[in-house]
Amino acid sequence: MKNIMSSLRPHWKQLSLGAILGGASLIAAVGLLAASAWLISMASTRPPILVLEVAIVAVRFFGLSRGFLRYAGRISEHDAALKIQTDLRISIYQKLSKFLPQTFVGMRRGNLLSQIINDVEQVQDLWLRMVLPWLAALISGAAGIGIMYWLAPTAANAIALIFLLTALLVPLISTLSSGSNLARDNEAALFDQVMQVAESANEALIFNFREELMEDLILHQDTIEFYEVKKAKRAGYASSFYMLGLASAVLTGLYFAAQGFAHHNLAGVNVAVIALLPLVIFDGLSTLPSAFSQMRQVIEAASKLNPYLESGIEEKEVSPQLPLSNKVSIEFVEVSPILDGTSLKPISASIIPSQTLLVMGKSGSGKSSLINALLGFLPYTGKITINGEPLAAKHEPLFSTLLQDDYLFATSIRENLKIGKPSASDREIDQILEVVELGDLVHHLPEGLDTHVGPLGYNFSGGEKQRMKLARLLLRNTPVFILDEPYEYLDSFQVDRIAKKVEKILHGKTVIIISHLDLPITAKTLLFAGAPRQD
Amino acid sequence: MKPLDPRLLRYSRSSRGFLITTVAIAIVSAFATIFQALLITNLIMSFFQRHESFSSNRNLVVDLAAIFLVRASLAFITDRVSTAASSKMRSELRNQIMKKTLDSGAVDVQRLGTAGLSVLITKGINNLDGYFAKFLPQLFIATIVPLMVGLTITFRDWKSGLVIICTIPLIPLFGILIGRFTANATAKKWQTLGLLSGYFLDLLSGLTTLKVYGRSKLQGKKLKQVGDDYRSETMKVLKLSFLSSLALELISTLSVALLAVSIGLRLVSGSISLSVGLFILIIAPEVYWPIRQVAGYFHAASDGMAAFEQLFEILDRKDVSGGITLSKIDAITWSQLTVDYPDRSTVHIPSGQISAGSVHGLIGTSGSGKSTLASILLGFSKPTTGEVLISTDQGTFPLSEIELSHWQGRISWLPQEPKFPLGSVAAILKHAKPGALEFELVEALSKVDLDISDLPNGLRTELGTINQPLSQGQLRKIALARVILKPADILILDEPTASVDDVSEEIISKLLDEQRANGKLILLITHRNVMIAGASAVTNMARAR
Prior knowledge:
heterodimer, A: alpha/beta, ABC transporter transmembrane region fold, Rossmann fold, 2 domains, five-stranded antiparallel sheet, five-stranded parallel sheet, 17 helices, elongated, B: alpha/beta
């Protein structure tokens, strides 16, 4: 919670402005009722019209100002809440980019990420639906009770007590619950399950496991239902409690109005004012029961985000352009990557500048793990040296890597390729697209390089996407290139053609290519054989 | 977009009971509101005009306390009933959608994408909570309470009734006018918002790539800028929607103010009694409040209602399937098949045939329609034009007249990217052959060159878990083992040797020969020349542009 709270610090002024404006609009409602009650009571004594003039103006003023104040308040608080959300996203992104990718290797990424996104959105409710409305209710309550105090101090004292009790206990009752809340975990599990069903819907038809998928789905849904009803119960208790608070306030108001009038402490025209004020004083509290019943989820969301927000060590700034050296040799000495706590078979190999190492072998033999160790994504035992020095973070800028699960962003082809080289001109991009044999396709697209990739854009095939990723990589200019299965999903003629062109482009560089098929290039071959795990 | 869609009643059985309960609650709360106002008025009148004490009005006080108790129980019931019902209705919808999606497989996944469909089914349906739990009950309260309260006021004082009758229609009228005026702008804004809010997810998903490209810092700065854009766009939308609630709020508070002032003036002239005036003053806000509230909930509900259309589109779709079941399949023939895609040129598929005991190879550049033909033969999609004919010993039938589930029971399939449900290797293999014994599974795995000792936990290795322990090639081999386990007549294999090394390729190609010798009809999609050596026919799919 602490880290979430600290994210609001820069915006507290705007948030309090929202609360104050919200409170003021509720005060206008209090004023409207008080002035109307006084006006009617006074009018019934048939005074000269002039006496009513002030009350009439007040009624109109409060009637008008309420809406405008509320409008201004809502704008101010929503703006602040969105700013807080942006800050939160940025800090999470920064933190995650430090974690990554060690934490993410092999994880069910979609699920984890969509949870982070949901949690960030949920935390926003804390301000907009809970804290600010509660503050506004307190402000307007204080104003209403102030008016009462001026007319009938004893009544005001009693009502203040009831109001405070209600204002404190309603959120408390809505939030309290026994046992742990598994709703969130189940929501996540449900999302997982639905993804699974959507992904394997076709296979479920052919291999007939639909029933099984539905059973799991229903189980998760039932659990979610159970917690939602539990939450509704809390909100229900809080609503009833609010109603009882309101009832005692109204009855107390009526009692003191009667007593005050009978003992000549209260003017007749104010009887209705005192009797009716409690109704509006409690108005601001009416939305709190259902709002605060979300509190547990928000707290949960906040606590899940916490690890991503805790201040860690600042990442060392590494300039991506800096070529430490043009000629790089790499040596692996008895390197065994550690995957899920198991060390893989040790591997030794060396590459000298201008040489290409073609890593081949059975699937699952640990080819990618060796690369992950080199990139610092996996821990390892043994020694990796770069030009004789032990591998360190400063060597990162030497590498250009095509990952097996490389990602194309939901933006234009141009923007995606520019990740490889931000300064790339359209000419350069066109040239590189020719190399990977995408020039023709992109040229014929109505929007050319501006065509969007991803769910909202053009429906590229697996092979086309793979070649686009390859093009992005080839725009880079670093001494070392690492390519993990670069020619996946391409037909064999295309593989041969493109592989030869890529060989020419990367001439003079230190290159590592992982491939399960042989390539028509000059390379030193490292063959992985047998089971990857050590016995 | 209708506030209450009749299709809802059809697809969600709980909704009927819920609607009846909601109407009952609305009626009771209208009565409670009226009686509460009456009792408070009477009490004030008795203190102020008849100079009676609090204790001499014990009956009225007890009645008022009773009304509050009724309202307290109503508050408890309303929340519980609406949440429970909303939860139930969403579950019902979700189950029906999932059933439907599972029954028709690819159609929805293809149209909306895996992520799109999952988001629709989870978040989309969850967003309906605002509609079910808040908007719908309030819609009834907003019709019943103002009507009953308005009538009561008109009976007590027709002039005030007239003011209310004149101002009430203004609320929906303004609501509609402002809604119309802003609908376009809002729709456009929401679209931008969708793009901007997806940015964060996109960025996080591609973080590893950014990291290896050394661009993660740079994109972090862009996130700030996109965040600011998002905020300013959101605020534009919010300002519009807050503006409409401002208009509604102004109408209602000004109407109440207007009533108060006019009652005050009429009291001075003596044309109305204080008790009536006070009663109207207390109860008038109750006419406007529920309508304003429903407008407020409408914004929250409309988020969810956008999903309605998509949901009903899936639910309303009639899946056509023929009724013919087949005995022995001799050949599959397809001719003049074309498929239109919304965003790319029409795919033309050259005619071809597979007969029992032979392999038909499909080669060609990526995107030329190889997987499309597979999808048609599997019954996942329908061609725009052209026909698939199945020859059997009892005659020839078009694919569209064959019962789909029967047809799919005859096929075994290796998808381009196999997706396994959560479960052990054994469980997944048993989908293909329920009741298969362990040695059969091991045998199938060894046939595809996967040694059981290569799997961390043997047959009990869990797939689809957080730490996927197997490589792409191993997963593909498991999928291939699943293919040969299923007692099917037709095999459709999409890239059986992608991510698989050369050694295994030979073994798999031998396996294909064996399957062919068993009389199976095999469609083989491949990029690899080695694999099509044994094919009796090969179609080279050129990309049509």
